[in-house]
Amino acid sequence: MRFLKIIAVIVILLIGAYAASMYYFVDESKDFRIEKEIDYPVEKVFNQFNNLQNFTRWNNFFTSSKSIDIDYYTPYEGQGSSISYTDSKNDTDGEMFLRYENPNKTLRYQLFEDKNESPTSVDVKFKAVSPEKTKITWIVHTPKLSVLRRVENFWTEDRFAENIDKSMVNLNNVLGNKVEKDNQMAAIKYDSIMVENEEEKLLLGINVSTSNKKDALYKNIVMNYNKIYNYTTMDLGKKDDEFGFPVLITDADNYKDKEVSYFLGIPLSKKFGLTDNNFSFRTQAATQNYVMYYKGNYAGRVKAIQQLIQKAKKDEMRFNDIRQTFIERPADDQDVNMKLSLSVFK
């Protein structure tokens, strides 16, 4: 009995020492600042922060869990927008509010985690370092913690910084595909041949052989594109701004053949495990291309392809495959809007 009393006294003394050290040496809340730069214009970066549907697509806090469920509330974008979330697997929930907005300059969030009535406040400041680079500064103020919970403040900043590091990688990937799409749309000049250097790309897609009779080829392309799109968005959970325009790769002159073989895929930022053997990754090598944009019915692309081949022969260039990049998604009974790229070399 006496031994138990001694143990109880020691436990009480330890708790008292811990509480005293927390009270006198650890702040009840924590303030810190984190700065990052990203190679995209401030107006494109800002929209990824003030639109909460965009925000949750790249922020690691939300993307790192497959069991998280998010509800969005009007106005969805800008001051007054908010979300609530629950994560059954990690036994957590919370609400986030966008309290203040100064377009392209400042945002203020409040995050209520679990049953904590005091929020974490985060001011995010944006500064255009150059027309193509933005500095982002997070100023964080954590809620007050009880004496016994103040030890959490030792790792709060590290945990927040790690989340930002992972989120910036995701944001770069999202903006990379989004900006690429915007730039391609802005650069379109139909029926003119241009020379263009294309960087290496990673494509997720399907290898196909199909008939070239009448509209059979295009119908097959539409069917397989829908398969790839559904697999990428539904099975893999990717959003539209996380991947690029669909690309069809085939022999330049096989439009004359009765049967056509092609690879149809969509650009992604990195490889990962696939759950369906019908799909595969393919690396599209960096090349120099003769390029022409075409809009019309799919059969009409042949004339544009012939022009590219004639240009290559005239310039005494050898050529490989033709890449058909669909600027607008291929769909039944619709004209195509595409970029035709003939890979050329000496």
From TrEMBL:
Stretches that traverse the bilayer: 6-26
Domain of life assignment: Bacteria
Gene3D superfamilies, alphabetized: 3.30.530.20
Sorted UniProt keywords: Membrane, Transmembrane, Transmembrane helix
Transmembrane as UniProt keyword: yes
Every Activator of Hsp90 ATPase homologue 1/2-like C-terminal domain range: 39-171
InterPro entries: ASHA1/2-like_C (IPR013538), START-like_dom_sf (IPR023393)
Family: Belongs to the AHA1 family.
Name this protein carries in UniProt: Activator of Hsp90 ATPase homolog 1-like protein
Gene source species: Chryseobacterium taeanense
